[in-house]
């Protein structure tokens, strides 16, 4: 029988010191930390009670969560506006775009699969019987929106000629189509990703892995893309000695989202005495920090190195 899963938030009489009354005779209470209590009603049923230290911190965390969600969601539009305003995509690296669209498609696949496909969700709870589904509605909305916004930016690359202006005699300007394209290095990286995903797909019907494992592999590819996707744009800015065509508004919004995301993780870890959420699984925090570092590098390029 599948375990029943419940998550209840309980405010204490004092900060971090809750009072809990239990009436059932066969109930066993296990206190994992000052902030988490697990109640085992039977072999297959339990309740997890998460205790917050401060309600104000909880509400602050919720507000911060919505702010960084909005910041990340609208971070695509400064670049779209920049392309429209200039009627050109010169300065926007195509390797970055190609990696971005693949990453967000895989992220959407992971979110939608784990949230909407019951068999996959059952596989997750079979593997983690005391877990909660890590995918929320806002994760799905963000990832699908990111796919649409990135696709629109790619369409702009086909609509607007990739213009390069070259000085000729008499200081006149001629317009020619630029040589921007997806590099062979990026194509090789995409080839590796495709190979990994195809092999994983073959392993599912042979029952070597299950669909949940395939979705996790998709998420690992997405994490890899997040680590490398900014490198082509940073190198292109360095080669051109310019950030023209690369929207700084996008960077500021991404920086805001990354900083607030990490701040929310720290506040939640303190409020629920759950520092394992950061140090026990540093991937999310590390990726946020990595993105912020690249954002700072782009800001230095834009305002100091290539003014």
UniProtKB/TrEMBL annotation:
It is a multi-pass membrane protein. Keywords: Membrane, Repeat, Transmembrane, Transmembrane helix, Transport. Pfam families: PQ-loop (PF04193). The keyword Membrane applies. This is Cystinosin. It comes from Periplaneta americana (American cockroach). It is found in: Endomembrane system. The keyword Repeat applies. Belongs to the cystinosin family. It comes from the Eukaryota. The chain crosses the membrane at residues 56-77, 97-117, 140-163, 184-203, 209-228, 248-267, 287-306. It catalyses: L-cystine(out) + H(+)(out) = L-cystine(in) + H(+)(in).
